[in-house]
Write a structure and sequence with these properties.
This protein has about 450 residues and is of the alpha/beta class. The protein folds into 3 domains: about 1-170, Immunoglobulin-like (Sandwich), CATH 2.60.40.10; about 170-195 and about 240-440, Rossmann fold; about 210-235, no CATH class. The chain is about 40% helix and about 25% strand. It is built from 12 helices and 21 strands. It has a 6-stranded mixed beta sheet with strand order 18-17-14-19-20-21, sandwiched between helices. Strands 1-10-9-5-6 form a 5-stranded antiparallel beta sheet. Strands 2-4-7 form a 3-stranded antiparallel beta sheet, with no helix packed on it. This is DUF58 domain-containing protein. Keywords: Membrane, Transmembrane, Transmembrane helix.
Length: about 450
């Protein structure tokens, strides 16, 4: 009991300031002996006030103050994740509470401090949010509460055992947002463009009147002759097509933007895209490439596929080695007998890097519909447009413009060999990939 009391007792700055002031006053009494009795009275008064303060703080029992941390059991990578601290005071008088939260070491937050004034018996909630930029396990420590009375000479330390471990998964919040907007038919607000063309498969859907923008190749002349107005055939989209997200985990994907690596952007995009492809009736799968290791999650249209993709994406990490695209082309050629859509998330920073992998990309594009997704260097692009004043800055800006121009040359080089490409900023990756997929569906390329 005494040990617990000692461990939870802390003196405040106010107490040490008062004690220091009395000590100085005692020094003054050495020169003015008549003031010695006053100094003694002040010391006795401070001691009595301290005892009174301790009596107020510790007479409330073992649970005078309750603090509970409320949060999800998993976090979404790259998003703001809400956390709530629920506080309840069982004291019969107003108290001041200082909260020190032990957040996971990955956030490097050593200054989390909240000061709250609470009335007798009051309940309140403190909310804050954290944005992780790495996937993995995060360890939350205790929530330390220091309670002070109105006297403020001492404080009682209360730290409930609320340690917890949460896992940070790819951005499922972004996935939920897309699902919500899709359910409410508001994808246009997020930048996803719907395509008017229903499809050109062999599966007939219905006949309707011609409207401006319809493909004239689908005109139904017999129906037109009967109705006296132009009529067109509509066909349903091809479904149950195999769609694979191929994620390069080589050193090129380790480059960071706004705290997230390119690999994390690719993972978040692959998660959202897979969900949309499943809703469109296609089979989705996942391929990851690291050095000479190629891991494949077979495509499926089952409801459990999203959980399998999420768990597989959670454990991915970048490698310092360069990925072996020859191994990738050989593996996919032997595994996939059916023509599939391959969305390759990778990054090329120079034309030389693309030329090294181009023969293997051409081999993949020979048997599958290949879409190469790579990234604009937004920092270089911004620097290339900034105003410069010195010769050195001009020299650096020319180099930045050269790198930005090389990205456009890569798109042209890929198109020369019939390989689809998508050059995008990391922030717009998901939107652009989804729009490209819808465009390919409307053009009946898959």
């Amino acid at each position: 009991m005494l040990k617990r009391f000692y461990q939870s007792l802390f003196f405040t700055t106010r107490f040490y300031a008062a004690l220091g002031g009395i000590a100085i006053f005692f020094v003054v009494t050495f020169f003015f002996p008549s003031l010695f009795i006053v100094a003694q009275l002040l010391a006795i008064a401070l001691f009595l006030l301290l005892l009174l303060d301790l009596f107020f703080l510790f007479r409330a029992g073992d649970e005078p103050f309750r603090v509970t941390r409320s949060m999800s059991n998993r976090f979404s990578n790259g998003d703001e994740n809400p956390i709530a601290l629920q506080l309840k005071s069982n004291y019969r008088f107003p108290v001041t509470v200082i909260l020190l939260e032990e957040v996971p070491m990955q956030f490097q937050m050593r200054d989390f401090r909240q000061r709250i004034n609470m009335k007798a018996g009051e309940e309140t909630t403190i909310s804050y949010s954290l944005r992780p930029v790495e996937r993995g396990e995060y360890q939350f420590g205790k929530t330390n509460a220091f309670i002070r009375s109105l006297l403020g000479l001492a404080q009682r330390h209360i730290a409930p055992s609320n340690e917890s471990t949460i896992k940070v998964y790819p951005s499922f919040m972004q996935l939920r947002n897309y699902e919500f907007f899709s359910f409410n038919d508001r994808l246009l607000e997020m930048g996803v463009h719907k395509k008017r063309v229903i499809g050109h498969s062999m599966e007939f859907d219905h006949i309707k009147e011609y409207t401006r923008g319809d493909d004239v190749r689908t005109l139904n002349w017999k129906a037109t002759a009967r109705r006296g107005t132009l009529m067109v055939n509509n066909f349903v989209e091809e479904k149950s097509q195999q769609v694979y997200c191929v994620i390069d985990k080589g050193r090129n994907m380790k480059m960071p933007f706004n705290g997230l690596s390119l690999l994390d952007y690719a993972i978040n995009s692959a998660l959202v895209f897979s969900n949309i492809a499943l809703q469109k009736g296609d089979k989705t799968g996942l391929v990851t490439l690291a050095a000479q290791q190629v891991d494949v999650l077979p495509s499926s249209s089952k409801r459990t596929q999203m959980n399998l993709i999420l768990e597989r994406l959670y454990a991915q990490d970048t490698q310092w080695e360069e990925s072996d695209y020859e191994k990738l082309s050989i593996s996919l050629r032997s595994m996939f007998s059916q023509r599939s859509l391959l969305i390759l998330y990778t990054n090329f920073e120079s034309m030389t890097g693309l030329q090294r992998q181009l023969p293997y990309l051409r081999r993949l594009a020979k048997y599958h519909l290949l879409l190469v997704v790579f990234f604009e260097n937004t920092e270089l692009k911004k620097f290339a447009k900034d105003d410069v004043g010195s010769v050195e800055e001009i020299y650096l800006q020319v180099i930045a413009q050269k790198f930005a121009y090389e990205k456009k040359l890569m798109v042209r080089e890929l198109s020369r060999y019939g390989i689809l490409s998508l050059l995008t900023t990391p922030e717009q990756l998901t939107l652009n990939v989804v729009n490209k997929y819808l465009e390919l569906k409307s053009r009946s390329l898959i």
